[in-house]
């Protein structure tokens, strides 16, 4: 695997992926619209076959994904960065946590925040409903479905995308994870197939979310304006309107506006959460939150592997398998977002952040809304609320808010939030599918994002017409089946690449002390002057362009004489790079780059090599830092002799060859 110089990937639309994905989606949509009864029967049969025969596969693979993510976070592999070794996070911890927090908020929590806990409470998979034990079980199951398993799926997909894109300069698509296994073949039919599975899964995951959103908006509007009927026709119209708004956003380039709406929505979500928390039994809810988390953690192993093999029930297919399929089909969408904001972080902090920040907020949301609703039914005798939710799950949030003061105001707030989540999901989903069809870069053409924006709405409408919410759920489960197989292979590719990186780091650290220039009698004074020199930009640039470049050229010439393909490159940034090509093995890179740093307070410039008044900042000095294929090595060679630079190159090349030997 070439970690430093992978084949230069293309830009623009990837026609095989785009046409195949569009063809499959068009075929399924036409089938659903033209033959709705047959489509409904087919979808039900597909779901039945998957639930009856492949439930174990979904449960096992999601369990493996969770264990895999925890292993990566706790092992030595967690020290590897999502980017070069010298990279720093693009966002502060606070901003990053806020974005992860945002990723955890969406249509799903609005739809199921009240509904799922109450439905499990009234109709648990085992035992009697409407009891204290059923309440405990309801919250435990809700946490199970919305907790670490879901975020482990997102984390692993995001990690695969970020690691290969930012550390090894491969496309920001799932195919890159197969590079350690098949090399440049990822740019051929195998890679195209992987991306097709990701696109199709993403679209049906998005369509499922749009379907849930349309259903909840429809019932919410009917709840507040009785003249608006509830039905498939209304939901189709709503999907069309929302996708039209998302399309306007795509055409007009209002991405910043959508971002502002998302941030506003997040603020409204916090306000709504605090309203219910502070307006209800605050102490009880915080006690329940702590106890629910403890109950979830203590039962997580049993919940993870429970297939009800000894107590057959339809509950598993309607809940756990549906969720696992939904999370898997939705993973490329959420994973790509997380990957784009996580460059420069170690795998350990990435895993810990992605697993626990959004899950912690989700647990709080489910506790505040779910436990409040259960308390109304169990302890306050409000059985009507339970009857309403049992009859129409999409009405659950509005029926719950109606029991609280200022219900009219906050019902409007909730409806507005759902609509905005609806719009931003459609717009962002179109962007992700466009990227997956365009080598991870985007097609740079509005018409393709427009196609996916409209396509998501068309698919959601087609499936609603064919079989309502059941058809949407079926396609979420079915589309995840091929994707999860690809994901398991991708995880193996990721693990292989991570082990190679870790092995190289160990070899580089063997007997590795700070490299020194050539030594000899009387040289110590010269070395001391070099150490205490804080040179200007111009001085370092001249050093790189003369001494370093000549040293690299001398080594390249010698290697060429030994039959090695070696060359020296000048980069626009002023860096000099020595590159050797080792064919199918990992290439060697030795790069010297100029970097700026703040001068220590005790420094006083007194010669022409230090910072002068002509510099933009007299408090800045510059270093000639060495970078290898893995990134910056955090040492400076400014002031070294040509012989000293050559010796350093040879030493690093020696380590690299030892590393290649260890891999053979």
UniProtKB/TrEMBL annotation:
It is found in: Cell membrane. It comes from Moraxella nonliquefaciens. This is Choline BCCT transporter BetT. GO terms for cellular component: plasma membrane. It comes from the Bacteria. One of its GO terms (molecular function) is transmembrane transporter activity. Keywords: Cell membrane, Membrane, Transmembrane, Transmembrane helix, Transport. Belongs to the BCCT transporter (TC 2.A.15) family. It holds the Pfam family BCCT. Coiled coil: none annotated. The chain crosses the membrane at residues 12-35, 55-74, 94-115, 148-166, 186-215, 235-254, 266-290, 321-338, 350-369, 409-436, 448-469, 475-495. It is a multi-pass membrane protein.
